[in-house]
Design brief:
One of its GO terms (molecular function) is phosphoprotein phosphatase activity. It contains ten helices and 16 strands. It is α+β, with helices and mostly antiparallel strands.
Amino acid sequence: MGGFVLGSFVMLAIRRQTEKRETPSEAVDEGLPPGVASVLAVLPSSAVVLDREDRVLRASSAARAFGLVRGESLMAAELLAMARKVRRDGEIRESEIETAGRKFGQESTTFAVRVAPLGSHGQVLVLAEDQTERRRVEAVRRDFVANVSHELKTPVGALSLLAETIQDAADDPEAVRRFAGRMQHEAARLTYLVQDLITLSRIQGGEPVPAPGPVPVDEAMHEAIDRCNTKASAKDITLVAGGTEGLSIFGDDELLVTALRNLIDNAVAYSPEHTRVVVSARPAGDCVEVSVSDQGIGIPEGAQERIFERFFRVDAARSRATGGTGLGLAIVKHVAVAHGGEVTVWSKEGSGSTFTLRLPAFGGQAVPVPRTTIPLEAAQ
């Protein structure tokens, strides 16, 4: 947006400069006024200069890249109409327009535009600033706030209702104990949600890890497994550490543990009793791949592209029953992005799922040291 404001000031300066240089007795010159070409060359906005016949005298590379200009023609009909009105009455006009998207998967591009006369020869200057990413971020922020509000209402509402119920059942100790247990469950769910929101807000946006260093993958795997032992033991699910030992990634140890814990928690939540979840690492060139595999219910193919979205749930009722916040996989994705890596998923309904974190190896090369796959003693 700063480039658009700068362009607006430059536009006014150019207009004043050219008006001072021109007199009624001057011959009509269809070329650019002195100095205009140099100014347009440094503007970050898409810039186009039209002559009195609507032909393009000068267009920046950005204007052509976005498809606003083709050859000597201005392709956006709305911009052309604005230019003619400006030429007719000499008034500067501002607006927003949408054009067909020029990037893969982008349906449209939104521009903030400003059109002004350039001198007295019928020339018009058009500035267009791409606002697509800003609009997308605003939409994501609105959706995020709406989703958070919705997710908070459920445990907060449940706590309020349970508190009223306990008050009415004060003379029934058994009912009080039962509803108090429910309150503890909802309070824990609310705590997990707030913690996940804090974690996600800290790492989202694709910012690099602030103070990266060597992170032993073995230690991160064992720490994440240790944090998930209680939930796994409750379902008699065995947590297994395997693969290649001695590997290190370049990043942040706590973020790696957080990502693995979320993947393991997710695997345990959607796996039947008496199964196992395997966490393994292996070298992959200049990266380390850490995978979490389960024998769970699997993920429908149509939902696999969306599972890393915030608050997306394949089965909302089941997710709430397991205490999930809907943010775990979004956190995993942002941890991967913050490390300059990626997370992928393989899944088949009824056959389980495998989530794989691919992260840069410390030192630029993963060094394999074989070891035997052994279930942790604490994970029964």
